[in-house]
Amino acid sequence: MRTIYRAEAIGSLFRPAYLRDARRSLRSKQITTAEFKKIEDRAVDEAIALQEAAGLDVVTDGEVRRLSFIGPLSDVVSGLEPMPVNRQWHEGGKLVEFQMGLAVTGKVRRRRSLVTEEFAYARRQAKKPLKVTLPSPLMLNMFWSPEHSLQVYKDPFQMFADSADIIREEVRDLAAIGCEYIQVDAPELAVLVDPAAQAALYEKNGISSKRLLTEGVDMINAVAEAPGVMFGLHMCRGNNDGRWLAEGGYDSILTEIVRRAINFQVYLLEYDDPRSGSFAPLAVVPKDKTVVLGLVSTKQAELEPADSIAKRIDDAARYFPREQMALSTQCGFNSGVRGNPIGEAAQERKLRLVAQAAHRAWP
């Protein structure tokens, strides 16, 4: 019988100030790589200890070795270079142009594995089960530039195929060293719930929304193959230093996703505010899957009332079996470069709330 982890975080935790300082020192060659790695190890130790002390059932390394959650497709691959690629994000009640900072200008190829380093070290430190997070191969859409990328890829889906090869290699290597739970982060799929976001982020840049939901989901499903590994698919509507990309319920996408993404046993779904819509679409999820409800926000510092979380779990159980559900944060705390504007004290309170509410709901 498959393990259900009732309480978990999505992935990233705040990177401590001393780690950010050390990264700057490494760039300016004030410290060596060996010195930096010791500082990085300390940050991982603290991230794992925080989650275990909070009472979560499964932990991550906090993604602190990455510049952002997409690190395995941006930090350690060739084919990307610094360049002003803009995308529209919602911030403070208005749309803003945000510079992503990288563009695909060459064939994307893996230089080394980032996630096997993360897992191999964290496994020695963690007392609880360990989850590794990987970005969806479609996440390179954020760095697709019609002006520059079309010179190397005639079709963005050729680029996605190359990034899928990278993620597939990571999965293979993780499985070979004993990883048992891999989460693929695919916010680009939840963006498809919002026609305006589709037009601005995809169609405007020559990326077909229809193909993302068909060919794209097939690519994601194809990377999630490894004996003995449980795969989770996380979907949110964008999480970048408090900004978001889209709004709308899962009604228009979930049927197609669960029909195609059959290699995933777990669906981790953002449900922290009205932008996520109702729980009704959960009725299409096969009853042998696990649905992890992302009811605790990482964008707002205010703590959700425990009674409200319990009621929302009850509401979700009208559409999907309660015994097959679990609880998580809505997304990571530090998916982007700076992190969401809520502070480390709120992060700890949120993690404890997830554990306490989950263990009350599923004693």
Provide structural commentary.
By secondary structure, the protein is of the alpha/beta class. Helix content is 36%, strand content 17%. The chain contains eleven helices and eleven strands. The chain has helices at 17-27, 33-54, 71-74, 115-125, 156-176, 187-190, 195-202, 209-223, 254-260, 306-316, 344-361, and strands at residues 7-8, 77-82, 86-91, 94-99, 102-110, 132-135, 181-185, 230-235, 266-270, 290-296, 325-329. Strands 1-11-10-9-8-7-6 form a seven-stranded parallel sheet. A hairpin with a 2-residue loop joins strand 3 (86-91) and strand 4 (94-99). The longest helix is centred in the N-terminal third of the chain and has 22 residues, at 33-54. It is globular, with a radius of gyration of 19 Å.
Evaluate the radius of gyration: 19 Å
Low-confidence stretches: none
The backbone outline, from C-alpha atoms, is: globular
Mean pLDDT: 94
Head-to-tail CA distance between termini: 18 Å
How many domains would you count in the coordinates?
1
The largest beta-sheet arranges its strands as 1-11-10-9-8-7-6
Q: Helix amount, in percent?
A: 25-40%
- What characterizes the major β-sheet? 7 strands, parallel
- CATH fold label: TIM Barrel
Query: What is the string of SSEs from the N terminus onward?
Result: EHHHEEEEHEHEHHHEHEEHEH
Oligomer: single chain
List the keywords:
single chain, two-stranded antiparallel sheet, 363 residues, 11 strands, alpha/beta, TIM Barrel
